[in-house]
Amino acid sequence: MHSCLWVQTSALGCRTLRKYGPALAGVLFDLDGTLVDSESVWDDVYCELAGRALPPELLSRTDGLDVRSALRIVHAELGWPMTAASSSADWVERRVAELLADARWLPGAAELLAELRSAGVPTALVTATRRRVVSSIPGLGGFAVMVCGDDVPEGKPHPGPYRSAVRQLGVAADRCVAVEDTVIGAASAAGAGCAVLLAAEEPAGGYAWRASLAGVDAAYLRGLLPR
Fold first, then answer.
1. Active-site annotation holds for 150
2. pTM for this structure?
3. Which of 30, 43, 63, 181 does the annotation list as catalytic?
4. What is the DSSP-derived secondary structure letter of residue 36?
5. Catalytic residue of the set 32, 43, 63, 181
6. H-helix segments, the chain
7. Which stretches in the chain have pLDDT values below 50?
8. Active site residue 32
9. Which helix (H) or strand (E) holds 208?
């Protein structure tokens, strides 16, 4: 199915792709904190699980990680047995899925996706969040490829998630731009050979940076590709 989507978007969008430059072969998006305002939801649920407020420094260490890796950090902080982390993860995912049914899109995200799709540029969703939670968030249809946390054996910062997405799109990694909000995610994308835009509160890691996706367009993303 993914290859059919690629052939169709290439055929329909060839004139627009030339306008933006044939080099932009795909744009790959993180989800939490990049497209939707959900990072605080995860933090709140971790605190709800703990039964108390958790230190901001600890919560920041969970950013960009899959839920099981994040909960190993939480369990270590609380002195809880690691053997219970899996059951904690199940509870956290159910609770987050409930809360994200009304997820708010971050500034510029929906507009950028609409422009890329209109231009025929293939898009992929690459997230550490597992599919059961992703499926609860409205408005995520239209991606040619979706790689969720339970689709790959190793999550971010390992490059595997982005390598999988690029392979499924059938394009060259060095002609793709990944949009992330964490250094962990950015390292995953860079390790797979993609150019990276870090859309976050502060610059980090030497990556191209914007405070948000507001005003970001296809021409800007193309400019991030190696010449």
1. no
2. 0.87
3. 30
4. B
5. 32
6. 2-20, 39-50, 56-61, 67-78, 85-99, 109-118, 131-134, 160-169, 183-191, 218-222
7. 1-18, 20-22
8. yes
9. strand 208-210
